Amino acid sequence: MSSEPKDLYNHDPFQYDRYGLGTTSFSFSSNTSSIDEHKSPLVVDPSSQTLHGLSPPYMSFTECLHGSVEYNTLATAFGLSPSSSEVFSSLEGDNKTLETTRGHVPIIGTTTEVPVSTNSSESSFSTEAGNEEYSSSSKKESETKGCEDGDENPNKKVNKQKKKVDKRQREPRFAFMTKSEVDHLEDGYRWRKYGQKAVKNSPFPRSYYRCTTQKCTVKKRVERSFQDPSTVITTYEGQHNHPVPVTLRGNATAMLSHPMLAPTPLAAPPPGFPPELLAHMMPPMNTQHVSGGTSSNSFAPQPMTHFQQQQQHLLNDHGLLQDLFPSLIFKQEP
DNA sequence: CGTGTTTGACCAGCGC
DNA sequence: GCGCTGGTCAAACACG
């Protein structure tokens, strides 16, 4: 952790791991139609302590995942299984570190020690299921529509804001936590910071970023856990509708950053999934140990797009991932 | 000059 | 209704 942030910033997330700084926790959070817009999917961090197995209440879950990132484990993690819910529901009482005033998203699963690097990576997944339709309860949107047709609103700000809001749709959100001294982790995409706000009960501000690619509405929030300042919580919202900018040092990050490289048979993270997370997810994802269990998994089976299939095919055929991450375990073939 | 950051202001939603 | 907070805007600014 004594490395220089600047240096780190210029490296891809995988290198964080190599440098021993990339302990990452993840939290998926697809919006549900029932989720209020203000129910931030932000990870409610059980804190790194939990993730590090220092907190007894969560040990069972961690234990269960520890050393065995079975696919069904992930399935459980993503599947809103009762056990998981129980585990993390307790977090709410214990720790409101990252709980927003408008709501929070419990972490419903964890996985640890994905063999990405020599360092153990510890991850936690969280999701709120479903995201098919945008709840009409979104006041912003409804209002926008209401004002859309006839407004020569003198207030330009309001006008533009409404326009933007009008475009806004229910986007899948997910978050992950990373042990890093760098706030804004390089994930392959180009981001433009459009805001920063002080976070209640936290000395660390929250930064708002937007993908700079035209037509891409993906946003992300970055904040630092005040309980564990070494932990950065990044929340992504939306899906990239474009490839990763090619300028990316030509490394694996660029490829893995591709929005379409995230799909998995069971628990597909939203497209636009950060490579950092993918680095952790890939192995289990490619593992075909899909336990039949969680068919009710609400996070699941996003049908692959044509492009996704192409990418998947490419990876499988040429073993690109294996080449890039020889340390990863791929069980794609029997 | 283009791109990205900073920062104060504004708006909307929620809880009391 | 009011205050608080999250989220966003946009002008000013910085930088290569």
UniProtKB/TrEMBL annotation:
UniProt-listed Pfam families: WRKY (PF03106)
An example Gene Ontology molecular-function term: DNA-binding transcription factor activity
Keyword Ligase among record annotations: no
WRKY domain mapped to chain residues: 180-245
Region (Disordered): 106-172
SMART domains: WRKY (SM00774)
Bias type Low complexity, positions: 110-137
Entry-linked PANTHER family: WRKY TRANSCRIPTION FACTOR 71, WRKY TRANSCRIPTION FACTOR PROTEIN 1-RELATED
Protein name per the record: WRKY domain
Species assigned in the record: Dillenia turbinata
